[in-house]
Design goal:
It contains eight helices and ten strands. With about 270 residues, it is an alpha/beta fold. It has two domains: about 130 residues, Response regulator (Rossmann fold), CATH 3.40.50; about 90 residues, Beta-Lactamase (2-Layer Sandwich).
């Protein structure tokens, strides 16, 4: 990528001389005859990275021009051509940041080219840092947005989970007070759910049967149901069965889909 430089001077001979020197080095040279012309060129040519201006110009001095450049194009590297007689004024301008460096008249070509090269290196490094800082700001903004969205989703899921847990607790409490015996079996026929009524009516010990196989949990008077229970868990098309024994009617319901059995639900009802 070619380096663009703006040279500003009210003397055409100096402009021509500087342009020949810079053309030989491969720079893209933009010319302005005074400060106002230079500001217009800068406004329409963002590629310009370095500005070299004469100090003694009519209407607007080089320092005044470069101060205006600093206000509107602060990232551009600003340099000035001047004689030693104006060193005090130039030093003040350098200290206030309006000027990067000054080049003495008459200039030495090699020294001038080295100074311009340093100015471009400084400009390009500053631009790279600026772009990296901008990318970092944009990345941080994206991360903040993602974190906010993630936090919102987590809060939503947490709220749904809390509602689900609350619902399960309500179901569990309601099941405890259900007036009929209810026993839930997994696909291997182990007891995974029971209510208070089931603990006193169905189980042989009257204590919790959670974790026991149904063959161990049932009281002797209900052992007759074991063949039907086993048949239900292994028969895909059989969804419900009902057995009657004495004063009790035992309903057996298959849970889950035909392809994916979750287990059985046993409900003992008075006949």
């Amino acid at each position: 990528m070619r380096r663009h430089i703006l040279i500003v001077d009210d003397e055409p001979n100096i402009l021509n001389s500087l342009q020949r020197l810079l053309d030989e080095e491969g720079y893209c040279v933009h010319r302005a005859k005074d400060g106002q012309d230079g500001l217009q060129i800068l406004a329409s040519t963002p590629e310009i990275g370095v500005i070299l201006s004469d100090q003694r110009m009519p209407q607007m001095t080089g320092i005044e021009f470069l101060r205006a450049v600093k206000s509107n194009h602060a990232s551009k590297v600003r340099m000035i051509l001047s004689g030693y007689s104006e060193l005090q004024t130039l030093t003040e301008a350098i200290n206030e940041g309006s000027i990067f460096k000054f080049v003495c008249k008459p200039w030495d070509d090699d020294q001038l080219l080295n100074t311009i090269k340093e100015a471009f290196e400084y400009y390009e490094l500053s631009e790279k840092n600026r772009l990296l800082s901008q990318e970092l700001i944009e990345t941080n903004q994206k991360l903040e947005k993602l974190n906010s969205e993630l936090e919102t989703k987590v809060n939503e899921k947490t709220h749904k989970l809390e509602l689900h847990i609350a619902s399960l607790k309500v179901y569990q409490d309601a099941l405890e007070y259900f007036p009929y015996s209810v026993v839930g079996l997994d696909s291997d026929l182990f007891v995974v759910l029971e209510n208070a009524k089931a603990r006193t009516l169905l189980t042989s010990t009257g204590k919790s049967a959670l974790g026991l196989h149904i063959s161990q949990a049932l009281q002797p008077e209900f052992q007759y149901a074991l063949p039907d229970i086993d048949r239900m868990i292994h028969t895909d098309d059989l969804r419900t069965s009902e057995l009657t024994h004495g004063d009790t009617k035992l309903q057996i319901h298959r849970l889950g889909s035909e392809m994916n059995s979750l287990g059985l639900l046993l409900i003992a009802l008075p006949r």
